[in-house]
Design goal:
GO terms for molecular function: glucosyltransferase activity. This protein is an all-alpha fold. 60% of the residues lie in helices and 0% in strands. The protein folds into 2 domains: 217 residues, no CATH class; 199 residues, no CATH class. The protein is elongated, with a radius of gyration of 26 Å.
């Protein structure tokens, strides 16, 4: 019977892997082994199921029981996301994964695994794995990367560090989920303390657990080398805060493990939402880096963004606003391109992206976006001339906090809906 189960598992893995190779078109990239490479897109977009299953494959030889725990957690996540298996390929994926789990549940002697001790076993394995793979050395390399922006390890060592961090990240995520039901006076307390320590002091793992789209700006990442590209480092440096800018309050909290930048001032002054700020910070960095790439790759030691790249981004992003002003025959918020320095240009570009990112359906009215930007840019210009940063009067709510969404976007949305008699999102279908 054991041989039959082994053959069935190999058959399921081979079938799922072949399907992944046929549909994904990943070229020469590494194809995740086994069932890890067959996660349907509808499940993989919003979860780390694929990463958890890859970790399960990687540690199968070290501890099959922990591998089974990770697979069960992946199945639970898939079931919660799509309980009726309506998504494309979800039913086949669940069937294959359940088959693998059932095989793992059977010991060689036919006995059953004690699943009540899963969280304890996972915690013990996590501790052993950290010690065996020298997490302290990885932390030192990560700190050196954060300070110098270059890798000292060779490519092979970097790949191993990347693999170790990915497995630790998967273990931490599963522990966090299972730890909620653990004994609060036993292993549950230990896991809670470990997670708290990771988020507060362990920059390596906390950085890897910080969400990002393409560039890990909130914390350095050993598993994503894009942050050390000279053009990206130059773009990050270009938006960094300087002593010439207004001073932020001492109690203003900076998210992540990064330096203060222009977006922090815009968040404080206009009350943009934090997720919008994170997304647009990354957007601006990539936009600047791409513009610089088209000119030349900056020197790696001290990368600087060319003035030509800044002007290109500035004119491209604000092109519609410039045309709007010309059409209405009103003055731009700047006198001439030469009259404003690169910092002001980047502030205006960042402000425009933040307005657009939080404008909801108002962004379907480009003239309205230009109007909002025109007046907020004037406010920003006055604020930048002061030594202390103060909230913009246009975005201060009655209760005191600053909110661009509440004070600027919502009134426009409600006015248009009231005038038309229809919800604004319905009107946008006809714009």
């Amino acid at each position: 019977m054991a041989r039959a189960y082994d053959n069935w598992e190999r058959l399921v893995r081979a079938t799922l892997q072949r399907e992944q190779l046929r549909t994904s078109g990943q070229g020469h990239e590494r194809i995740p082994s086994g069932i890890a490479g067959a996660v349907p897109p509808s499940l993989d977009k919003t979860t780390n199921i694929d990463a958890i299953l890859q970790a399960a494959d990687a540690i199968q030889a070290e501890d099959a029981n922990v591998s089974r725990i990770l697979c069960e957690q992946a199945y639970s996540m898939a079931q919660n996301l799509d309980p009726t298996s309506d998504g494309r390929g979800v039913l086949q994926f669940k069937t294959g994964l359940m088959s693998v789990i059932k095989q793992k549940l059977l010991k060689r002697d036919g006995g059953q695994i004690d699943r009540d001790r899963d969280i304890e076993h996972l915690w013990e394995f996590y501790q052993r794995y950290k010690r065996r793979h020298h997490l302290e050395d990885i932390q030192r390399e990560e700190q050196r990367l954060h300070e110098s922006g270059t890798f000292s390890a060779n490519f092979g060592e970097y790949i191993e560090m990347k693999k170790t961090i990915a497995i630790l990240r998967a273990l931490v995520e599963v522990m966090e989920s299972l730890g909620k039901d653990a004994d609060p006076h036993g292993v549950g307390r230990q896991i809670t303390e470990e997670l708290r320590g990771i988020k507060s002091t362990d920059t390596t793992l906390s950085g890897e657990l910080t969400a990002y789209n393409i560039v890990p700006l909130e914390a350095p990442s050993l598993t994503n080398a894009i942050g050390v590209f000279p053009e990206v480092r130059g773009a990050i440096s270009a938006i960094r805060y300087t002593e010439q800018f207004p001073r932020l309050p001492a109690n203003f909290e900076i998210s992540g493990q990064r330096d203060v930048d222009m977006f922090d001032l815009l968040e404080f002054v206009f009350g943009f939402q934090k997720d919008n700020v994170r997304n647009q910070r990354e957007n601006v960095v990539l936009t600047i880096a791409n513009a610089q790439c088209r000119l030349a790759i900056p020197v790696e030691a001290d990368p600087k963004i060319d003035e030509k790249a800044i002007n290109e981004v500035f004119l491209k992003v604000l092109d519609n606003y410039i045309k709007w002003c010309k059409y209405l025959r009103i003055r731009l918020v700047w006198n001439s391109l030469e009259a404003i320095n690169r910092d002001r240009k980047l502030f205006l570009v960042s402000l425009y992206f933040l307005i657009w990112g939080e404008a909801a359906n108002v962004r379907f009215l480009p003239e309205c976006i230009c109007y909002i930007f025109h007046h907020m840019a004037k406010e920003l210009d006055a604020i930048l001339d002061h030594g202390e940063a103060n909230p913009a009067a246009s975005c201060v709510t009655e209760n005191g906090p600053v909110s661009f969404l509440e004070q600027i976007v919502c009134p426009i949305y409600e006015t248009l809906a009231a005038v038309s008699g229809y919800p604004f999102h319905f009107l946008c279908l006809y714009i």
